[in-house]
Design a protein that fits this description.
The chain has 370 residues and is of the alpha/beta class. The chain is 40% helix and 16% strand. The protein has two domains: 2-174 and 351-366, Rossmann fold, CATH 3.40.50.2000; 194-349, 3-Layer(aba) Sandwich (Rossmann fold).
């Protein structure tokens, strides 16, 4: 089977969840599944493509990621990629993000992956000029088939965009942050035990509620730091909230770095706290489980679907429930060990190899080859 991936996400993201998914899927289809796969990205900024195996054809060259370069690269890629893809004659054309118009050559079936419906569920968190919702709707309606990364995302897609359920499938993601000798064991602050928070912190991510829950607990606020990985430096608003909740500034720390730094934090943390109000999938809990880090998380949207019985969950709208759940886990070593054991078993259900095989099944279904 000839499978083409377009340039969109690879021309926008140096690193990132969606580009990681597209890269891992493409390379597993080429290697594990033995398909003829090509990524058509004449000018790409993505770092994952630099390590692509020989079996995955990358049609393009790396370009510098400069301020405001994205629009230029998109224009150049759209001009150059089309004739190259046409010459490849793909049977499957997998769009890597949401395009307003068709990009696939005649005769190819278009596949789109929808990762979440956050723009639609939390409109106030995004600019009115953000085109993602409009372009997602257009892309989903014209695609021959839509892959959703969770059953929650599929239900939301069908409900909010009126997509025929028969044109949708659920394929869970794998995860890439695995144990290796490069883990930086000393990446974590060692002064006090700490709770770990990973990712962006605004809006539906519910970080403000986590600050309130920690501040409301004498034990948590006294005995534990809160370490935030990624998401940029703590903002003036966040520092103001810490002052308002009487949290000393040295008890909440923001850390950035490589996967090795994050792996070191997972290994050292007392627990990962994942308080999000909505996730299309939610990768950090699986990453934490792979490093024997107990997981405490929201019990809403796709999160229970991903973590199964391997996490302690709470209602993210209930501050007392959040506080009590965190206190229960950090105060009960036998519970923490049970969560670690269940986490080891849970991650066996998620891999990029499995993601690729199930995606190939979708391709065969769309092509009528079942």
């Amino acid at each position: 089977m000839r499978i083409a991936f377009d340039n969109q996400i690879f021309g926008w993201q140096e690193y990132g969840g969606i580009s990681r998914y597209c890269y891992e899927l493409a390379q597993e289809l080429a290697t594990t599944c033995g398909q003829e796969v090509a990524v058509f990205a004449p000018l790409y900024v993505n770092r994952y493509l630099a390590g692509a195996p020989a079996a995955l054809r990358v049609i393009g060259m790396p370009a510098p990621c400069l301020p405001k370069s994205g629009r230029l690269y998109r224009f150049v890629n759209s001009l150059i990629a089309a004739p190259l893809v046409k010459r490849f004659r793909p049977e499957i054309f997998h769009e890597t993000y949401y395009a307003a118009s068709r990009r696939a050559p005649k005769g190819a079936c278009t596949i789109l992956t929808v990762h979440d419906m956050i723009h639609e569920r939390f409109k106030d968190s995004f600019s009115t000029f953000d085109p993602a919702s409009r372009e997602k709707a257009l892309a989903a309606k014209r695609a021959d088939h839509v892959i959703c990364v969770s059953e929650q995302t599929r239900r939301d897609l069908v409900e909010l965009l009126d997509i025929d359920p028969a044109r949708t499938s659920v394929v869970h993601l794998g995860f890439s942050l695995t144990a290796s000798p490069t883990v930086e064991a000393n990446a974590a602050p060692a002064a006090r035990p700490f709770l770990l928070y990973v990712g962006k912190r605004g809006g539906y991510k519910n970080f403000e509620a986590l600050l309130q829950a920690v501040a409301a607990s004498p034990r948590l606020s006294t005995d534990f730091d809160l370490v935030c990985f990624g998401g940029g430096r703590l903002t003036a608003k966040e520092l103001g909230l810490m002052q308002r909740f009487s949290i000393p500034h040295d008890r909440v720390r923001q850390v950035s770095g490589s996967d090795a730094v994050l792996a070191g934090l997972y290994r050292s943390a007392h627990a990962l706290v994942f308080p999000s109000l909505y996730e299309g999938f939610g990768m950090p809990p699986l990453e934490a489980m792979s490093f024997d880090c107990p997981v405490i998380c929201s019990g809403v949207s796709s999160i229970p679907e991903v973590v199964g019985d391997a996490a302690e969950m709470f209602d993210p709208h209930d501050l007392d429930a959040m506080r009590e759940t965190i206190e229960r886990v950090v105060g009960d070593d036998s519970l923490r060990q049970s969560l670690i054991a269940r986490g080891r078993k849970r991650i066996e259900a998620f891999s990029w190899q499995r993601c690729a095989r199930e995606t190939l099944n979708v391709y065969n279904h769309v092509l009528g080859r079942e």
